[in-house]
């Protein structure tokens, strides 16, 4: 029997409770270790992104957002997963959901600027490293 809790991916509309929980998670994982907080510019940029979060047992445990760069390309931003939950493949599930959403919306390329140490995660999932960015044209987006 599998004792892993169920993880569900939801859209997190700007200003919603899910968005606020995702924002706290992002700040704790991506900003606080660097001595930073989420800036006003980042909050403004959030308004131009599609936000998704992974929820288990009523708590947001992962988040990712997508920002269109043009009619075919998305910038994957702010991928964060609760460190205690990383063994559950939440990042991979979030990325698969984001890619499916992108394909359905007509996008064909996704770009991610991965932090040092996170490149392997993206490479393992089929992204190619080009300069400072990881790029992927996932098979569902080739159509």
Describe this structure in words.
- This protein has a 7-stranded mixed β-sheet, with helices on both faces.
- The protein has helices at residues 17-31, 40-46, 90-104, 119-124, and strands spanning 8-11, 50-56, 59-68, 73-81, 109-112, 128-130, 133-136.
- A hairpin with a 2-residue loop joins strand 6 and strand 7.
- 30% of the residues lie in helices and 29% in strands.
- The model is unreliable at 137-143 (pLDDT under 50).
- By secondary structure, the chain is of the alpha+beta class.
Cα radius of gyration in angstroms: 15 Å
Strand tally is 7
Order of helices and strands: EHHEEEHEHEE
Oligomeric grouping of the chains: single chain
Strand content: 25-35%
pLDDT averaged over residues = 87
As a percent range, the share of helical residues equals: 25-40%
Give the helices and strands, then pairings.
Layout: E1 8-11, H1 17-31, H2 40-46, E2 50-56, E3 59-68, E4 73-81, H3 90-104, E5 109-112, H4 119-124, E6 128-130, E7 133-136
Parallel strand pairs: 4-5
Antiparallel strand pairs: 1-2, 2-3, 3-4, 5-7, 6-7
In short:
The chain is of the alpha+beta class and 143 residues long. It is built from four helices and seven strands; from the N terminus they run βααβββαβαββ. A seven-stranded mixed beta sheet has the order 1-2-3-4-5-7-6, sandwiched between helices.
């Amino acid at each position: 029997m599998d004792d892993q809790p169920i993880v569900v991916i939801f859209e997190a509309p700007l200003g919603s409770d899910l968005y606020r929980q995702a924002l706290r998670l992002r700040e704790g994982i991506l900003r606080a270790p660097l001595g930073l907080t989420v800036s006003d510019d980042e909050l403004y940029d959030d308004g131009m992104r599609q936000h998704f979060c992974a929820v288990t047992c009523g708590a947001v445990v992962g988040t990712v957002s997508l920002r269109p760069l043009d009619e075919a390309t998305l910038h994957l931003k702010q991928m964060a997963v609760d460190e205690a939950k990383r063994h559950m493949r939440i990042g991979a599930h979030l990325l698969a959901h984001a890619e499916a959403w992108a394909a359905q919306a007509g996008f064909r390329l996704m770009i991610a600027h991965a932090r040092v140490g996170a490149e392997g995660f993206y490479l393992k999932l089929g992204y190619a490293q080009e300069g400072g960015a990881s790029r992927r044209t996932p098979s569902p987006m080739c159509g």
